[in-house]
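Recall the central idea of this unit: under ordinary conditions, the amino acid sequence of a chain determines the structure it adopts. In this exercise we apply that idea directly, starting from the sequence alone.
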Amino acid sequence: SSGSSYSAGVWTINSGMAAGSSKTLTLPVTSQSTDGSFTNTATAVAPFGGANLSASATLAVSSIVISSFNAFESSTAANAITGVIQTKIAGTPFNLDVVAISGGIQVASFTYPVKVELLANTGTPGSGYGTNNCPTANSVIQTISSTNIIGGRSAVSFSAVADGWKDVRVRISYPATGTPTATSCSTDSFAIRPNSFASINVTDSDWQTAGTSRILDNTSISNNKVHKAGQPFTIQASAQNAVGNTTVNYGDTPAVTLSACADTACTSNFGTLSVGGPAVNGILNSPTASYSEVGAFNLQLQDQSFANIDAGDGTAASCSGRYICSAVVTAGRFVPDHFSLLAGNSVTPACVAGGFIYMAQPNLTVSATVAAKNASDVTTLNYNGGLALATASWLAENNNSGTNLSSRLVLPATSWSSGVHALSTSSASFSRLATPDGAYDNLQLGVQINDPDGPTLLSLDMNPTTSGDCVATLSCIGKKIGSETKLRFGRLKLSNAHGSEMLKLPIPLQTQFWNTTEFVTNSLDNCTALIASNIGINTSLTGITATLGGAFVSGVGSLTLSKSSARGFATVCVDLGADPGVGTTCTATSASR
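Accordingly, the structure predicted from this sequence is:
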């Protein structure tokens, strides 16, 4: 009424009173409009017993000055105008504080309704913001049409957002309806991530084909449910929110974290696991997953980059923070895809020039390396110890006759180490039978791999019982090492000799081999050479010495006794054993004068 006034929520009412009289009433706000005006209505008891007074008035506020708004975590310090918003979980409600700002400070007198929205950046996360800090390409994913900010800062409750978003900002508009006079987005972005990867499965159809017919969860070397390293298998999972619904907006490819399991096939050194992917509409169903190594392990899917927008705002870098994670499952057992004989393998006989070796001669040089490989032909370094179930058998045959000599090949023991089975020796030999055999002029060495899990040695071209080359698809069991050489049953022949005591006495000396019917001179032998300690002389004559003429030539050597001061005889022997000069008792061959 006329003469009434309002200040700080208090009406001063003069109506119906004598001049100069007044009645002061404190009236509650009964309605408030979005333009900042509000109406008070109240009834006051007449102060002098007269009729009750009623008052109703609308006060228009026309000078609200707000420069911007911001939103941040409710834990942000009092009177702050900036702060961070940490990662939220799809399907879970959350609260944030909204603050009114003017002149760089919080406006404590701002007590009005505002509209609050969540804007998802549909452009590139982390970029594309306008002058009001709002993403220029956006999708409104939640709207609170009106909520009161009281005293310049109030908490706002947001309902659960069902889907996942990488970059979200809070937009605040004033007034709540009509044309806004002030609109701002939060200065900090935040992600709303899927709660987890659920229903994770690692499967295949068979050991080299992706599929879903069996679960790959074998962690034992005694179980032959295996998959070849490097061959495709299937990984399935769904990105779900907190209430178990698929977040269809998720379309990334999660990474994996591997850890050691606890069984006989488990390893602590890991290869590379490729998930394949990506997810489509929140579902990962990748038939192109692969693992480069052998063994078994624990597997957990993790997307550590989906919520990268929050990497610097204190959100924990963990599955309880900004990472999307699955449960931990076992995966395995992975085995080599195949075995390969590496290049550079060789067989070098003791007599290189003649291309032969005598039986029981312990200096055949053999170099060969077999490697366990994945499907990309990369060595699987974990294939050793208990995981290396394959055995390597060294083969030998006379290739033109199919005579199997494998059992007579004498080699040092070898084993798997870091995925390779290496043989490197200069002391290999072939055992010598009590009776002569051979000659074997097409000696071929090779290797055979037997793995109970099934991987095989590639490019087989040898069978130690097959004359000539085997048929690879039918009967080959091994892979040739080096080129052919000759193996011979040999002997050294000293012939009897006689002559004048006044002259030096040459003794005929030959290296011979068994040619399947008799011993003949080995015309290929230009390698054998004797030393003085090989020669033993038994004689009563004094001053008798032996002189050697150097290496044999075409199987013929030279041994000469010195002149004698008297007639007599001497028994001469040649010791070719490992201890020349020891035990030179000569009885079989003599040279007389």
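The radius of gyration is 48 Å.
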